[in-house]
Write a sequence for this structure.
């Protein structure tokens, strides 16, 4: 659209993953399978936690919010990706693109906060077991979750509104399969200084800040585990922490590299984007919950429970 002598972009063109129809069909089947597994795993966790009173504890309260967020996060990215794999024109309107950017920022920021809160919860449970229920009472848990969601909303609003102040006059090809802030910011025709400072500040304060809090909690947990004489108890803690830390590392490293470093390798950009937006929501329910013996027992009780007949 041209207003006077200024051309304004009204839609963006998303990058193709492949121009080969056969590869596109394979990718469609792959991402559809991942998406269905992600929804099934996370929604199943929500159902089990809600249905079983044995799981009404702080840890599973946080896990239920993480499961909901992961299902939501995956639904922001993958359905649009599936549509683009089947459609001839990989276009997205200006409004749809900015809506997706805001939701991605909200989900990523909220998940970073939730992961650090969950690490703090495990720190209290392992390092201060006698005071755990006092330190993590319902009021504290609700406040921590509420703060995580509020920080996510605030982060999303600030960065999206600053980006919306930029002028886009072309080109309009986004070097990504979804609308994300870094590749869209490269297309601005105005000075992106304020938006760049905003997102870098967000990543340093929120991204690195929550990561160091999380790292500190796991370090204290490991130090406590090393003092445990029981090999079984020590092994259980190490096994749980290593699995958790693997998923957290994938999420943080890929997200920080994507948003804080200028990457010239397009393939690497896509891999990093897929890791935190597609792979992490798939792994979280299996790593955090479905490997847990308490969750397995609750799932068995739910499946074997006899339905009550009411008249």
């Amino acid at each position: 659209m041209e207003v006077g002598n200024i051309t304004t972009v009204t839609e963006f063109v998303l990058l193709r993953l492949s121009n080969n129809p056969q590869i596109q069909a394979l990718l469609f089947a792959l991402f559809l399978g991942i998406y269905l597994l992600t929804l099934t795993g996370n929604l199943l966790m929500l159902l089990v936690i809600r249905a079983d009173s044995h799981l009404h504890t702080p840890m599973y309260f946080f896990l239920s919010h993480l499961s909901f967020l992961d299902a939501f996060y995956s639904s922001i990215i993958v359905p649009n990706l599936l549509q683009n794999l089947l459609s001839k024109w990989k276009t997205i309107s200006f409004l749809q693109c900015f809506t997706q950017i805001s939701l991605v920022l909200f989900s990523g920021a909220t998940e970073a906060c939730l992961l650090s809160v969950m690490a703090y919860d495990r720190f209290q449970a392992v390092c201060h077991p006698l005071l755990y229920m006092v330190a993590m009472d319902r009021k504290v848990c609700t406040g921590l979750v509420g703060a995580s969601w509020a920080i996510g909303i605030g982060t999303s609003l600030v960065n999206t509104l600053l980006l919306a102040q930029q002028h886009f006059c072309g080109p309009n090809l986004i070097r990504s399969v979804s609308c994300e802030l870094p590749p869209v910011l490269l297309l601005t025709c105005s000075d992106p200084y304020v938006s760049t400072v905003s997102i870098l500040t967000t990543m340093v304060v929120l991204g690195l800040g929550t990561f160091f809090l999380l790292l500190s909690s796991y370090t204290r947990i490991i130090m406590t585990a090393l003092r445990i004489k029981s090999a079984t108890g020590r092994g259980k803690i190490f096994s749980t922490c290593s699995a958790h830390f693997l998923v957290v590392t994938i999420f943080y490293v890929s997200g920080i590299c994507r948003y804080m470093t200028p990457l010239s390798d397009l393939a690497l950009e896509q891999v990093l984007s897929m890791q935190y937006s597609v792979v992490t929501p798939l792994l979280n329910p299996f790593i955090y919950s479905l490997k847990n013996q308490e969750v397995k027992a609750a799932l068995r009780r739910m499946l074997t429970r006899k339905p009550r007949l009411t008249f």
About this structure: The chain has ten helices and five strands. The beta strands are 2-3, 6-7, 11-14, 91-93, 173-174. Residues 94-127 form the longest helix (34 residues).
